[in-house]
Amino acid sequence: MVFLVSCQKEDPYLSEGTITGPDFRECACCGGWFIDIGGETYRFQELPCSCSLDLMNEEFPLDVFLDWKKDPDGCLGDEIIVYRIKKK
Description:
Elements: E1 15-22, E2 33-37, E3 40-44, E4 62-70, E5 80-87
Antiparallel strand pairs: 1-2, 1-4, 2-3, 4-5
């Protein structure tokens, strides 16, 4: 008997983006990382726990694939929540 094992394909990512670097501004709502997605610039504060990226040791700009949504509780209106991300 021969068993065939099929590889589970990873679902495609919703977007492609470029992390351009940290937000060094000093204000109550600032901080995190800048990312360009579809001609718009957003910011995110943290990566999902399952992510293996270490942004403190990456070179920018960094091209990525990601799943995300606008943060409904964002302070400045440019914040997003990243659900899944990986390097291109």
